[in-house]
Design a protein that fits this description.
The structure holds two protein chains of two kinds. Chain A is an alpha+beta fold. Chain A has one domain: 2-Layer Sandwich (Alpha-Beta Plaits). Chain A has two helices and four strands; from the N terminus they run βαββαβ. Chain B is of the alpha+beta class. In chain B, β25 and β26 form a beta hairpin. In chain B, α14 packs antiparallel against α27. Chain B is elongated. Chains A and B meet through α1 of A and α14 and α30 of B.
């Protein structure tokens, strides 16, 4: 069974939506960083926690089954489309060993 | 976990906390009593000494001077004044504001104790009283009766005064205008001489007969009995049978030489109410008691009391101190409610969402109600200051909630869930919200440190606004996010009726945004022109300053008028009464606004232990009156107009010597302005001539009313000049001889007659027929210690002289004041005019002239306020400097302050207002209120630049995006103030100027700053950028050279 690591970076205001997606997909395990900074490569609002850009990012790393990965990707992208300025991203890696 | 995060995550706890605040607040409200002003600890104490029989000059030399010189060493003393009158000396000591008056009074007591032995014999013990607002009567009633008039005093004392005294909070109830019972023994001098008796002997005989003596105890068998001699007269009739001496082996009874009359005092004051004769009942409250509560209880008790009295006795309320309070409070409550309504409309207008509006409106009651907790905890009352504080705060408390809610809405629109949006949205603006609150606290907290009379009043305002704003911030950071997370929806449901109704408003607001950004685009290209225009507007407005007058506290219409008029000295009560009746009839016809008119004629009896009556002026030629008008709504003319009418009326009586009408019912100290020209100097004649000159000049200056010289007219008196040599030859001295005269004319109190637990004086003196001419005085026989008699005219001369009835002194010098009240002119103008007139006069070098009265207090308070505004400006600057982490941006923002001054001046000019305490306080508040707009604007422009925009687009975009929040917070504050500025109901004249200047100042400064701050920001920021570039270039160049 192949596993994939999914790294989701998002505006902290989306934490509940992301959590919902994870629980709907029965993804129990995760690691989360709160109060972190981030900026998209092309456009969108930076999340820097400064005066100019007061919002901040969160990131969740979870290891999911490779069958689940595409569904997760689809869900996250759908959420991103609802508010594209907020910059919600998910990245996948192959997990070599568990 | 941050406070807003926990509040969103624990909605129940959050809700409960605020519900608890509201419940506690409402509980406190139910306990609060109402009053006009916060309790003012007056800074005055008076010392009252009676010296019976002494003339004003005697009192001055022997009592006032002695006390003054010792009291002048009391610490923290500001002013010492004394009035020496016949029989009494009143020394009033004024302390610096903020002095602990109790410590001061103790100090006075110690000092007086030291010199007490130097006071002449016959002086009463000095009574020291703290002067406070409690001294003013809370209610004056008049009791009229047809049949029971002779017994009125006793009936009122037992039946009314005593029950009223039992009401908690009632301090003293005094009755005047009803003669008291007295047993007078009128001796026939001829018979007296025939029997070789003196008044003193008779007095002594009565005193010796009319005693009860305990005789010890006696053991009889196994029992112990006490012995008692009951010598006191059981009935006044029995006095007739006292044996006063033996003459030729025969007993001389009192009835042989005198007539014993058990009746009422010879002289007493007469009071009339609406034409009927009656007695006046003056009720004073205990210090610290609440007048409204006291009067309420009295009103409840009176009908019950009345049932137990003879049927013909009727009560009329002549004056009460509370109707006005109640009306003022009611109209202020209306003002606050109306403000609430206006603010609601503004919030709905700008937000266009009812859920959001509800969340914001909830902040108002919560924060306002918290003020009641503060009032209750500190033992304060609900008064016009605390209520106007609420009215001021109402528009400001929503500001924080608006900012928070706006940011939360933005997050929701961007797709966040309400819960998360609430937490993070609040997090982002939290610091800015706290910063704007701090600028407001920087304004209102210094209010609590103000000195002087103004300090006492405005400390409460400062505390309330500070507390209310702090609570509103707390609520904005906890309750608002919590409610937003529950009430706001992610999807906006369009198409509801509300949205349809709101659509045109939304279009209008959008259009306004576009218009404003167009203006800004023009402005950033014409910065110099814009800034120059701004300064021209400011400079032009400053010229208005010279056309606006100043005064201290605006006068308000409380529906009470008091006054007095005098016939030439020597006129008797009957003549005075005749004029009073004529006056009453005439004004009752002319002024249907008059509800009750009461007047008092004559001198209060010297036996009255009635401090209130003693302190009032009186005389047989003196009529003082008090008028109560109908409610403001029920009459067409105001108090000032009617007072002016009464003055013209009184002027038309040629019999009158002088008169005074006081609108407001006080002595002019509580309402309106008084100017005192103080003339200091010893010589009566010189100072009086100067005073008369000044009086004439003041009467010719427009705006002065009731010009009066404080020194009362000289009263004719007979002075007895003893020839000391002849006295000595007869083995007599002045003291003994004077005592003889006093006992015969004034009478001596021989003893007290007791009946039913009451004591009545037994007074022995010559019968009236022998007290009516100079010959009677000259014929008085004076006995020396060896029993030899000599006639007064053998050792003394009786001369007619005029003497001042009272001598006033200030700071240990004799003083005459020429005082006047103002009507239709402002204080500074008339003061300037009179000063010019005085400068033209030729005044001897040993006479000092100064202008006092309200102007003195006004100058002190205005100086205080100048200092206060300086402090506030600095504090506001500090807060902003810290917020922007810059010493420079705060200056741009503070450009709003001069334009606030423009607004203040324009609004005062347009409404015809004056610069007074209230408008000054309003202007000071403006400092904190107007910079808020600038903070919001500059903060966002800075943010835009940090996000990488160039200066011009940062300014234009920032302005456009902040226009609505700025307009909204301004509109809530301005509209919240409008009911106050409009002036609803009774007493509104007092707080109206405060509302007017805030509305005017904030409106104009907002409009101007919306244009001029972007221009200034543009100008300065581009200079900064240029100088940075220059520095950078220099650095680069130097590197290149090195390389």
């Amino acid at each position: 069974m192949k596993m994939k690591a999914a790294f989701i970076a998002y505006n902290q205001a989306h934490v509940e939506d992301v959590d919902d997606i994870l629980s709907q997909l029965s993804i129990r395990g995760f690691t989360r960083w709160t109060d972190i900074q981030g900026r998209g490569s092309d456009d969108g609002e930076p999340h820097l926690g400064t005066h100019a850009w007061p919002s901040k990012n969160m990131a969740t790393l979870c290891i999911v089954h490779e069958n689940i990965a595409p569904i997760l990707k689809k869900r996250i992208q759908a959420l991103d489309l609802e508010a594209p300025e907020q910059g919600l991203r998910v990245f996948f890696w192959d997990v070599v060993d568990v | 976990m941050k406070i807003y995060e926990s509040s969103v995550k624990k909605p129940v706890t959050t809700a409960i906390i605020f519900v608890a605040i509201v419940v506690l607040g409402l509980f406190s409200l139910s306990k609060l009593s109402i009053d006009m002003l916060p309790e003012i600890e007056m800074n005055q104490a008076i010392v009252l000494v009676t010296y019976p029989g002494a003339s004003a000059e005697d009192v001055e030399n022997n009592v006032s001077k002695v006390l003054e010189s010792t009291l002048s060493t009391v610490s923290d003393l500001k002013k010492i004044q004394s009035t020496s009158k016949e029989n009494t000396a009143v020394i009033s000591v004024e302390f610096n504001w903020g002095t602990d008056i109790d410590a001061g009074v103790n100090d006075m007591r110690d000092k007086i104790e030291m010199v007490k032995s130097h006071l002449p014999d016959g002086c009463s013990n000095p009574i020291i009283m703290k002067l406070s607002t409690d001294m003013m009567p809370v209610a004056i009633y008049s009791a009229t009766s047809r049949e029971s008039s002779d017994a009125l005093y006793k009936i009122l004392e037992d039946g009314v005064a005593n029950p009223l005294n039992r009401i908690s909070g009632v301090g003293s109830v005094s009755i005047s205008g009803a003669p008291q019972r007295e047993i007078s023994i009128n001796v026939d001098p001829q018979k007296l001489e025939a029997y070789h008796l003196t008044i003193e002997q008779i007095g002594a005989a009565i005193a010796k007969e009319n005693v009860n003596t305990p005789g010890g105890s006696i053991d009889i068998g196994s029992e112990t009995y006490s012995l008692r001699i009951e010598g006191e007269m059981k009935e006044s009739d029995l006095l007739n049978n006292i044996v006063v001496s033996n003459y030729g082996g025969r007993a001389v009874f009192l009835k042989d030489i005198a007539i014993v009359r058990d009746s009422v005092q010879e002289k007493a004051q007469e009071s009339y109410v609406n034409g009927e004769k009656g007695a006046t009942i003056v009720v004073q409250k205990q210090s610290g008691a609440n007048s409204v509560d006291v009067v309420k209880q009295i009103r409840e008790q009176l009908p019950i009391i009345q049932k137990s009295l003879p049927q013909d006795i009727e009560f009329v309320e002549v004056m009460n101190a509370t109707d006005n309070i109640e009306n003022s409070i009611t109209s202020l409550v209306q003002t606050v409610l109306l403000a609430f309504l206006f603010v609601t409309i503004v919030v709905i207008f700008f937000l266009g969402q009812w859920r959001a509006s509800v969340i914001i409106m909830l902040t108002i009651p919560i924060s306002l109600i918290s003020a009641f907790i503060y009032l209750q905890l500190t033992g304060n009352t609900l008064n016009i200051i605390s209520l106007s504080a609420l009215s001021i705060a109402i528009g400001m408390v929503v500001d924080d909630a608006i900012v928070v809610l706006e940011n939360i809405t933005t997050h929701i629109e961007r797709g966040a869930r309400p819960r998360e949006a609430a937490i993070y949205g609040t997090n982002e603006v939290g610091v800015a919200v706290i910063a704007t609150t701090l600028t407001l606290l920087a304004v209102f907290l210094p209010f609590t440190m103000m000195g002087g009379m103004a300090g006492i009043i405005f400390a409460q305002l400062g505390w309330i606004v500070s507390i209310v704003i702090a609570v509103s911030t707390l609520s904005a950071l906890t309750l608002t996010p919590m409610l937003s997370s529950l009430l706001l929806k992610k999807e906006k449901n369009t198409g509801s009726t509300f949205d349809k109704l709101y659509a045109p408003i939304k279009r209008g607001l959008d259009k306004l945004d576009v218009q404003y950004s167009k203006i800004l685009t023009w402005v950033v290209r014409h910065k110099t022109f814009t800034i120059a225009t701004g300064f021209i507007i400011f400079a032009a407005s400053i010229t208005l300053m010279f056309r606006i007058g100043t005064e201290f506290i605006p006068a308000s219409d409380n529906g009470q008028i008091s006054g007095n008029f005098q016939l030439p000295v020597g006129a008797n009560v009957e003549r005075s009464k005749e004029i009073a009746i004529r006056f009453e009839k005439s004004i009752n016809e002319k002024y249907p606004e008059i509800k009750t008119l009461s007047y008092t004629i004559g001198i209060p009896s010297e036996d009255d232990n009635n401090a209130w009556a003693q302190m009032q002026s009186s005389g047989t030629n003196y009529v003082s009156f008090r008028i109560k008008l109908h409610k403001l709504k029920e009459r067409k003319r105001d108090m000032f107009e009617i007072s002016e009418g009464l003055r013209t009326e009184l002027e038309s009586y040629p019999e009158l010597y002088k008169f005074k009408v006081n609108a407001g019912g006080g002595d002019g100290t509580t309402s309106g302005s008084v100017v005192d020209i103080e003339i200091l100097g010893y010589d009566f004649e010189t100072t009086e001539n100067i005073a008369a000159d000044i009086k004439v000049k003041m009467e010719n200056i427009k705006g002065f009313r009731n010009v009066a010289i404080s020194r009362e007219d000289y009263i004719p008196q007979y002075q007895i000049e003893f020839d000391r040599e002849k006295l000595a030859l007869n083995d007599l001295n002045v003291a003994t001889a004077s005592a003889f005269i006093r006992n015969r004319m004034n009478g001596m109190i021989a003893s007290l007659f007791r009946e039913d637990g009451e004591e009545y004086k037994i007074k022995v003196r010559y019968d009236k027929a022998s007290r009516e001419s100079i010959e009677d005085i000259e014929n008085i026989a004076i006995f020396n210690p060896s029993g030899k008699s000599v006639r007064l005219n053998e050792v003394a001369k009786v001369v007619e002289r005029f003497a001042p009835p009272s001598i006033e002194r200030q700071d240990r010098e004799r003083i005459i004041k020429v005082s006047a009240t103002l009507y239709g002119e402002t204080l500074d103008k008339v003061t300037k005019n009179i000063q010019a007139e005085i400068d033209k006069m030729d005044i001897p070098s040993n006479i000092g002239i100064q202008i006092g009265g309200t102007i003195e207090e006004q100058q002190e308070s205005f100086a205080d306020m100048g200092l206060l505004s300086l402090l506030i400006i600095m504090m506001v600057y500090f807060v902003m400097a810290a917020q922007f982490e810059s010493l420079f941006y705060p200056f741009i923002i503070m450009i709003a302050i001069p334009f606030a001054i423009t607004g203040v001046l324009v609004s005062l000019f347009v409404t015809g207002g004056t610069i007074n305490m209230m408008s000054a306080i309003g202007s000071i508040m403006l400092i904190g209120i107007v910079v808020k707009n600038g903070i919001v604007l500059v903060d966002y422009i800075n943010l835009n630049r940090e996000r990488g925009m160039n200066i011009n687009s940062a300014v234009i975009d920032g302005g456009k995006s902040r226009l609505r929040p700025v307009l909204m917070t301004t509109a809530t504050t301005v509209l919240g103030m409008i009911p106050m500025a409009y002036g609803l109901g009774e007493g509104s004249e007092i707080w109206q100027p405060m509302g007017v200047v805030i509305v005017g100042g904030l409106t104009i400064s907002t409009v101007v700053t919306l244009v001029i701050i972007p221009a200034l920001y543009g100008a300065f920021a581009s200079r900064e950028v240029k100088s940075n570039r220059k520095k950078h270039r220099l650095k680069l160049n130097s590197r290149q050279i090195k390389a």
